[in-house]
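To whoever is on call:

I kicked off a structure prediction for a single chain this morning and the downstream step that reads the tokens threw a length-mismatch warning. I double-checked the sequence; it's 61 residues and nothing unusual in it as far as I can see. Pasting both halves so you can look.
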Amino acid sequence: MAKTCLMVKASRPPKFKVRAYNRCPLCGRPRAFFRRFRMCRLCLRDLGRRGQIPGLVKASW
């Protein structure tokens, strides 16, 4: 879990546009962020495994 102050800081509008960065709204992780789903890979995998993300299917081959 990320620090609460960093999550709040990322949610505020930045002073300059280029300073904005993505952070997972569920756990606050700044890395491995999927823009399409608006969450990090760990949360995406967990919610996808539970079947809570429509259209996401677990790969098997």
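Update from on-call: the warning came from a stale cache, not from the record. Cleared it. Sanity check on the structure: The helical segments are 4-11, 41-50.
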